[in-house]
Amino acid sequence: MRWIDSLEAAAAEKLPEPVHRYFRQGSAGGVSVSEAVAAWNAYRFRPHILTDVSTVDLRTTVLGTPVDVPVLVAPSTLQLQADPGGEVAMAAGVAAAGSVVGVSSNAGSTFADIAAAGAPWWLQIYVVRNREVTVRMLDAAVEAGARAIVLTADTPVVGRKEDDGPTVWETVQATHGLANVNEDDYTDDDLGKADDLGPDVIGWLAERTGLPVVVKGVLRGDDAKRCADAGAAGVIVSNHGGRQLDGSIATARALPEVAEALTGTGTEVYVDGGIRRGEHVLAALALGARAVFVGRPALWALTVGGSAGVTRMLTDLGDELDHALRLVGVPRAEDLTPDLLVP
Ligand code: FNR
User: Fold this and answer.
1) 276 close to 37: Cβ distance less than 8 angstroms
2) pLDDT at residue 171, rounded to an integer
3) Is the pLDDT of residue 164 over 70?
């Protein structure tokens, strides 16, 4: 069996059942989470023949940072449940693969410890009602060397998970806590998600940090344009792994409209959700993404193999992409074009 496909079942053996469920679940009826992979599989390629594919180059830059492979790790919570090294082990695995790691606002390790693992990292931020909390987190991230701020914009309220009893999140929160917020200093209301944000928050984040801002959760061309006009350096086409509005369009289907809307703006386009194979990465790049993010595969790989598992998962996807580029007849990822696909 292909190693990446074996990871979830192997992780399920090691993880406490509620944690496995938390990692895999979508919100509400689970429609979006169940469609994500299939939507990538629904594309068909129109490969070129008789082109020189003797040398393939996967390297690119993301917001100016060079990466060896255009597969980055999406921010996610509860990594200490996957491996004792948590976010630090995740970042070490990413560093060895020559990629970039997204670090969640809800990380269980401190930014300084994560940064010391050596991977370039982007802070994912949830802007909360008490801006002082957000400002402190931003300042700490800048201090620890974050290269970009990823504003998660699809979460004015948290998606409803149809669990019985307290969620894993609440249970684990009670024991682990957040490493980069002093929760004792604030009320639940202070820490609740801000639900009154407009595009001006992009400029505010950029000004406060001096870092490029990437908006995560974009699913429409018009919103992508609003983000670009407000100063976003990038957008991530994402439906939060099917964990926010259930029934949201699959990212494989939303990406072309967003890429089209941002043509010529200089705003970089990324995508996540259901990307599990080199062919999925190939499709995403051909449709205009500069790089992709993977969420759950990184959690499964961290659980099964620690930082070495994360490195292997990323390099395996890179190897598959290399192979697929040769077969599609385009040796340089940046030369991929949408005509290589039919929906
Ligand atoms: C997430 N995701 C997420 N996103 C975010 O902006 N902040 C966060 O703290 C989290 N936490 C989180 C936890 C878990 C367990 C999962 C599975 C996901 C969403 C994540 O960044 C990404 O958008 C999706 O996971 C991508 O989809 P795939 O690759 O998991 O299909």
Assistant:
1) yes
2) 72
3) no
So what's the pLDDT on residue 167? Answer: 75
* Structure confidence at residue 285 (pLDDT): 98
Give the residue numbers marked as catalytic: 240
| Secondary structure letter of residue 51 according to DSSP | -
Give the separation between CA 149 and CA 272, rounded to whole angstroms. Answer: 17
Tens-digit pLDDT profile for residues 283-303: 999 999 999 999 999 999 999
**Per CATH, is 3-342 categorized as 3.20.20.70?**
yes
Atom of ligand 1 nearest to the CA of 37: 31
**Chain-centroid distance, C-alpha 104:** 10
Buried b (16+ CB within 10 A) or exposed e, 195-209: eeeebebbebbbebb
Q: Which atom of ligand 1 is nearest to the CA of 105?
A: 9
- Check pocket membership of 76 for ligand 1, CB cut-off 6 A: yes
What distance in Å separates the CA atoms of residue 280 and residue 285, rounded to the nearest whole number? 9
**pLDDT tens per residue across span 227-245:** 999 999 999 999 999 999 9
* Residues 126-138 pLDDT 10s: 999 999 999 999 9
pLDDT one-digit tens code per residue, 197-214: 999 999 999 999 999 999
Q: How many CB atoms lie within 10 A of CB 32?
A: 27
Q: Count Cβ atoms within 10 A of the Cβ of residue 241 and give its class: 0-12 exposed, 13-18 middle, 19 or more buried.
A: buried
pTM over 0.80: yes
Residues 280, 282, 287, 292, CA torsion sign: positive
- Helix, strand, coil percent content, the chain, rounded in steps of 5: 50, 15, 40
Query: Ligand 1 within 6 A of 296 CB?
Result: yes
- Please tell me the distance from the alpha carbon of residue 19 to that of residue 12, in angstroms, as a whole number: 9
- Helix H segments across the chain? 3-14, 17-24, 31-41, 79-82, 86-97, 111-116, 131-143, 168-176, 188-191, 200-209, 221-229, 251-261, 278-286, 296-328
**ipTM of the modeled complex:** 0.99
Residue 140's nearest CA partner among 180, 85, 98, 174 is 180
